[in-house]
Design a protein that fits this description.
There is one protein chain. This protein is α/β, with parallel strands linked by helices. The chain is about 35% helix and about 20% strand. It is built from 19 helices and 21 strands. The strands form four sheets. Strands 1, 2, 3, 4, 5, 18, 19, 20 and 21 form a nine-stranded mixed sheet that branches. Strands 9-10-11-12-13-17 form a six-stranded parallel sheet. Helix 10 links the parallel strand 12 and strand 13. The longest helix is centred in the last third of the chain and has 17 residues.
Length: about 525
């Protein structure tokens, strides 16, 4: 077993402690994985190790308020994309997708969703998953939501169905078990299968254990565009009916140019409910292109099919022809707004990072045939980025006091062995700081990705540089801090991050060179 050093002194640093208060020049002492002292002057003798920070800034480890590393940390525990941008803690299990609970009704589906990971899903619940993660020692701390889509799939599969009372009761039992095991709440992805089939009443009935446990309802809304306000109103009603006191809105946005003007109404609605006693918080990634499975743009009736069912259907030539005809309902402008990010579709690797119209021109075919071909060969694995958000609204949303920062991505290796990431998987935290620093200052920007998400998700002893807190720390140069990842080269690590400690152990130094140190005994699970 590896042991923590008795004492490590980090001196000659500018401390931004995560509170939002003005930074100060000083030093920090780490003992047994925790911060034992932080002050302008500390003794420089009697330490096992001393790090001279050379005037660089020391902040609490950044907290990713919305990630998807549920399984990637099993496969690539070094979490290169996270660590190299300063992330030391991630909230996983978002958008209704978690790696638990597992039954015979959802195991095969999830195995297909994660097939690129080449890992066999052998566990059944959160306790088993944590045991697997502990054995692999990932480089980041993890806290988990129980995903509603996974939960519903575990009881009723992924077909379109109205659940019986017995099925709802079984979902409540499995949810209660997850909460007892440490899940911080329930997440929904009401845009996706099978969550989209759930009625408001079903959601409220299912989520009763969350209210009783005093935990969080986090939602990827049923609509983030044309029915954005209605979707937020639904989420508020579900929270109240389930007796839940804290509603968290995932990646708050106004999708589609026609909906950009709705932000004022959204802010007013949330403020009204907050004044009435419902705690509402949100997160946001710092980009105006989203990313999800490309199948999300399929028109009715195909939008009710899960990825496996759609791919199986399109294997029939007659059904494939019908599907192609159906895609004529998609507007020509839409093809220019969908960018191919990752796929195992044969012959498509050279087109990654390009939109469907560009790909069609180069392949001398139509955009609808490009889409149909991708769904026929790799429906579950093909990921795309979608334009349609406002840069102005993005900056406004990030400045809202109850909104914290996130990546909305999985921890990735430096290579593309687990697929290609959106640039947010490698650059979100530096980008958030640089977007906010000119407006609210460096210290307040850091608070958005440290103490604020720690408070929102109840992460005790994290998010601040203070005695007794976990020694999750990031040493960086604010003048050189920069996100480098692009859609053409999405796995480029950020500049300016010099050292990262997780629970007192050095996890990364000089991210520009990608040099990783031992990842043992650092993680913590909520």
């Amino acid at each position: 077993m590896k042991h923590y050093p008795k004492s490590l002194l980090i001196k000659n640093t500018r401390i931004c402690d995560g509170s939002g208060k003005p930074g100060y020049s000083g030093a920090v002492i780490i003992e047994n994985g925790r911060i034992s002292a932080a002050a302008p002057k500390l003794p420089e003798t009697g330490h096992d190790g001393i790090v001279d920070a050379g005037g660089l800034t020391l902040a609490p480890g950044f907290i990713d308020a919305h990630g998807h590393s549920d399984l990637s940390c099993l496969v690539v525990p070094e979490a290169f994309g996270n660590i190299t941008q300063g992330i030391t803690t991630e909230i996983a299990g978002n958008c209704g997708l978690s790696a638990f609970p597992i039954t015979d009704l959802n195991r095969e589906h999830l195995q297909e969703v994660y097939r690129n990971y080449n890992i066999k899903i052998t566990w059944k619940n959160l306790r088993d998953l944590v045991s697997e993660l502990t054995r692999r020692q990932p480089a980041v701390n993890l806290a988990f939501f129980c995903g509603h889509n996974t939960l519903r799939g575990a009881v009723a599969g992924y077909g379109k169905s109205e659940l019986s009372n017995c099925q709802v009761q079984e979902m409540r039992r499995l949810l209660s078990d997850a909460l007892d095991a440490g899940a911080i709440g329930i997440s929904t992805g009401l845009l996706y299968i099978p969550g989209k089939f759930a009625t408001e009443m079903e959601l409220a009935e299912t989520f009763q254990p969350v209210g009783k446990a005093g935990k969080i309802y986090s939602t990827h809304l049923r609509s983030e565009g044309n029915k954005l306000v209605e979707a937020i109103e639904e989420a508020i009603r579900v929270a109240k009916k389930a007796g839940i006191g804290h509603l968290h809105i995932s990646h708050l946005k106004t999708a589609g140019k026609n909906n950009w003007q709705k932000l004022d109404e959204v802010i007013a609605l949330i403020g009204k409910e907050q004044n009435s006693g419902l705690q509402i918080t949100a997160d946001r990634y710092p980009y105006v292109e989203s990313m999800t499975q490309i199948s999300i743009i399929t028109p009715p009736p195909y939008d009710d099919l899960d990825s496996s069912a759609l791919q199986e259907l399109l294997a029939d030539p007659a059904e494939y022809a019908k599907f192609l005809e159906n895609l004529n309902t998609i507007s020509p402008e839409r093809w220019r707004s969908v960018r191919l990010v990752s796929t195992d579709g044969p012959g498509m690797e050279s087109y990654l990072g390009q939109n469907l119209e560009e790909i069609a021109e180069k392949r001398q075919t139509s955009p609808r045939e490009v889409l149909a071909g991708l769904l026929k060969t790799d429906s579950s694995g093909t990921m795309a980025a979608f334009k349609g958000m406002s840069e102005t609204n993005l900056k406004r949303i990030l400045q809202i006091p109850y909104v914290c920062g996130c990546t909305d991505d999985a921890a990735r290796p430096e290579d593309y062995s687990l697929g290609r990431s959106h640039p947010r998987g490698f650059g979100s935290m530096p980008r958030i700081i640089n977007l906010l620093k000119p407006v609210i200052g460096l210290e307040a920007a850091i608070a958005k990705i440290t103490s604020l998400p720690a408070r929102i998700f109840g992460l005790r002893n994290r998010g601040l540089i203070a005695p007794g807190y976990a020694a999750d720390l990031v040493l960086f140069d604010p003048d050189k801090l920069r996100d480098n990842a692009t859609f053409a080269n999405p796995h480029l690590p950020a500049s300016g991050i010099e050292k990262v400690w997780v629970n007192g152990k050095l996890a990364c130094k000089n991210s520009r060179g990608g040099e990783f140190l031992s990842c043992g005994e650092k993680q913590s699970f909520k």
